[in-house]
Amino acid sequence: MPGAGTDTYAALVKTHQGQIRAFLRRLCRNAALADDLAQDTFLRAFQNMDKIQDSAKAKSWLFQIAYRIFLDHVRKQKRRTELAGENMPDPDPTPTQEAPQGIKMDIEQAMNTLSPEQRAAIMLCLSYGFSNAEAAKALNQPLGTVKSHIARGKDKLRAFLCVYEKA
Length: 167
Prior knowledge:
Distance between the termini: 50 Å
Low-confidence stretches: 86-100
Order of helices and strands: HHHHHHHH
Shape: globular
Number of strands: 0
CATH class of the largest domain: Mainly Alpha
Helix content: over 70%
Mean pLDDT: 82
CATH superfamily of the largest domain: RNA polymerase sigma factor, region 2, helix turn helix motif
Largest sheet: none
CATH topology of the largest domain: Rna Polymerase Sigma Factor, Chain: A
Number of domains: 2
């Protein structure tokens, strides 16, 4: 994609924006923030279009950018909170009432129990069809670490959703 123009960029956005936004929404658990981070992702991608040499790898390249932007945001928020000396409330606190009905909502709750690293690895491999090696590259983590995040995440999801195994 060297020297890619605005048509190529527009095609890149059109092809991948839905998946990038969904990925970030799951990581952030805040739709508005996720949309902002997705916009930042595509802005950074546009600024670095000359660095992608294989259009077949554009998807993992975009997920890598999105994850780094998410981590940057988390680090900035942590620093702001530390500087302010106060604990900010969770942007999407889990309700203390009865568990919501429906497996989709239960899966969402189960995913929210995972660490951001586990959520990212699970989503890339199970939802987006990345291989473990592709996920490791996108998350800028060693392959063994990604495999560990996936295994531990699956165990937590299985424990949370065990009621459906008996049904």
